[in-house]
Amino acid sequence: MSLPGVLAEIAEVAGEAAALQICAEYGGKDVYIPASCSDNHPLAQCVGREKADLICAHLAVGGSSGQRFYIPLVEGGAFKALQRTIARNVHEESVAGKSARDIAGGNGISERTVRRHRAAHRGTSKDRRQGSLF
Question: Which value, in Å, is the radius of gyration of the alpha carbons in the chain?
């Protein structure tokens, strides 16, 4: 997926899922992105601290304390694309043996969302049309 403006830069350093999460949360708005942020900063809340640090470091210009960026709206179902990307990340990281906590933190989602994605994935591997023998 080709992302416009600053979202393309964010995707480059923190991944497409992070860029789409930011778009879903702040699309169509001007957002202040500091040179560094804390755990309770809205950016860290949105995408997780690790990815927020990558974004802040990349977008910091010449030692400034931060600057405002316009977060463009993405046409054509950005939310659906975000859901697919997160589902793929959860599956890949689950197969790799990561815990729900680690997956949630790395993708800026809740542990409950990780559990829902895992359950949905497990549910697709069996035929729901078959009745119980007991």
Answer: 17
